Amino acid sequence: MLTDRQLLIFQVIVDDFIQTAQPVGSRTLSKKEEVSFSSATIRNEMADLEELGFIEKTHTSSGRIPSEKGYRYYVDHLLSPQKLNQYDIHKVQSIFAERIYELEKIVQKSAKILSELTNYTSIVLGPAVRDNKLKKIQIVPLNKETAIAIIITDTGHVENRMFHLPENIDAGDLEKVVNILNDRLSGAPLESLNNKLYKEVAVLLRHHINNYDLMLNSIADTIKIPTYDKLFFGGKTNMLSQPEFHDIEKVKNLMNMIEQEEGIYDLIRKNKAGINIKIGRENNNSAMENCSLITASYSIGTEQLGTIAILGPTRMEYSRVISLLNYISADLSAVLSKLYQNS
Fold this sequence. Notes:
Layout: H1 4-20, H2 26-30, H3 39-51, E1 55-57, E2 64-66, H4 68-78, H5 86-97, H6 103-118, E3 121-125, E4 134-141, E5 146-153, E6 158-164, H7 171-185, H8 193-208, H9 212-222, E7 231-234, H10 248-260, H11 262-268, E8 275-279, E9 291-300, E10 303-313, H12 318-342
C-alpha cells in the first residue's frame, strides 16, 4: 500500500509523463505547485516507488517513467473521469447530426472523428455481417453476358457483385428473377440465403426461367457474402507521430498488425461489455508492448452489437479517452437502436 505522499508523487509523475513524454526527475517534481516536499524527500520516495515497481529508469535519462505495473495501478485506483469540453462534445454530436440511415456510414464516421479527437488510432468493430438480414437485391444488366447484383442488408451494408448471365436470359427474365429473389429471400439472415435459394427459389425459377439451373448457380455464387465482422479504422498512421514510435523498427510490427487487421480483430472481439483497458503486455501481443488498448461496447438494448477501441501509447490520456468512448458508445447505441426500430 502506498503512503499518501507516495500516491501524490506517483500521480504527478504519471500525469506529467502523459503530457510531455519526457522522463520525470526530482528537480521537475520539486517545481510542481502540488508537490511541497524537499528534493531529498522526493528522491527518497521515488527510490521507494522504483523499488516497488511503479516507476522505472530509462536508458537515456536520469528521470523516471511509469512502468506497466504503475500504469495499471494508476488506471485502477487514481483515475477520475474527465469532463469533456464543448469542442469534444460538438465533434461527437456531429457524427449523428446528419440523417444517416446506413450503419456502416455511421461507424466509419465514428472511427474518423475519434482518431481526430485523440490523435491515436481508432478502431470500430462493426456488427457481424452474419447477423444481417437481406433487405433487397437488384440486378443491373451490363450487356447480354454480364450483370451486377446489388445486395443490400438491413443495416445498410451494400455489396456489388458482377456475375455471368446464362444464354437466352432477357430483361423480362431478369425482372422475374429479381421479384422471386426479393419475395423469398427478403428478411432472411445472410447465413440462410444459400439454403433458402435451393429449397424455395429453385422451384419457382424452374417454372418461370429458361436455363434456370445455370441462373441458379450464378446467383448462388453471387450472394455468398463473407460473414466475418468488419473493422473500420481512423488514423491508422497516427501512432507514427507519437514520440515513443519515432524508431521505425520499434513501430514496424505494430503497423504490420494494423495493416493485416487479423491481430487487431483478435485483440478486441473478445472483450466484455463496457470499458476495458489493456496495458502493454496485458494484450498478449509482442507488437503491443508499448501500447494500450481501451475498448467500449455499443449495443441495442441488451444485445451487444460491436466494439469501439482506441489504440495509443501506454502513456495515453486514459481519463479523456475513457470519457470519449463512454460518450460516443452511448450515443452510437441510441442512434442504432432508432435505426433498427425504424427498419
